[in-house]
Specification:
Blueprint: H1 9-19, E1 23-24, H2 25-35, H3 44-56, E2 60-65, E3 68-73, H4 75-82, H5 85-142, H6 146-176, H7 181-202
Antiparallel strand pairs: 1-3, 2-3
Helix pairs in contact: 2-3, 5-7
Length: about 200
């Protein structure tokens, strides 16, 4: 995949983010992730060395808040930014193009994964139908036996447990980062395929 930022573009964009106000390193990483709609998030190993270089050049200053460091743009940093507004506009255009490219790549990955998932679900459903066919025939002759009631209850508990587990996972995910449209679409597609497979098994 081509680099998200061309040479020198990231340091310029960091100055633009700091122009809006002082930020911690984590806040800069989060702001970049939000600008890319969740399709890209720079690592600390990418951001902090560039912030250090900007500080060496006198374009950025730091303040200590407890154990955290806040970065501020200096007058020299603002002058640098003002002299390169046209270049910054090009960086914004490049980011927009990168977002579209990364989103296209993610959608293709999702489509590929969905094809594999559908095949796995179909195979699992077919195996379940095969293994359950004899039990289904017996249950029709036996009626609502205690054993069939027990298995029904167990199936309901499995569904309930799955729902509870996924809700916990979603809440933990949402507490640390924003849910992207692509992630939501993946969840929706997976659940739709699971629903179809279960219905096909029940009505086979």
């Amino acid at each position: 995949m081509p680099p998200v930022f061309a040479h020198g573009a990231l340091r310029l964009y960091l100055l633009a983010l700091l122009e809006a106000g002082p930020k911690h390193g984590y806040e800069l990483i989060k702001a970049l992730g939000e600008r890319f709609g969740g399709t890209y998030s720079p690592s600390a190993g990418t951001i902090y060395p560039r912030l250090g270089k900007l500080e060496e050049e006198g374009l950025v200053a730091t303040e200590t808040e407890g154990r955290r460091t806040k970065y501020l743009i200096t007058d020299a940093g603002r002058a640098e930014l003002d002299s390169r507004r046209d270049e910054l506009a090009n960086v914004e255009d490049t980011i927009s193009a990168s977002v579209r490219r990364l989103a296209d790549n993610l959608r293709e990955d999702i489509r590929t994964n969905m094809r594999g998932l559908r095949a796995d679900l179909a195979a699992t459903a077919e195996a379940a139908r095969t293994s359950a066919s004899s039990a289904h025939l017996r249950s029709r002759t036996m009626g609502h036996t205690p054993e069939s009631q027990r298995m029904l209850k167990e199936a309901e508990l499995l569904v309930q447990s799955f729902r509870d587990d996924i809700r916990v996972e979603l809440r933990q995910y949402g507490a640390s980062q924003s849910l992207t449209p692509l992630t939501l679409e993946t969840v929706r597609t997976v659940l739709d395929q699971a629903r179809i497979s279960i219905r096909n098994t029940l009505h086979h």
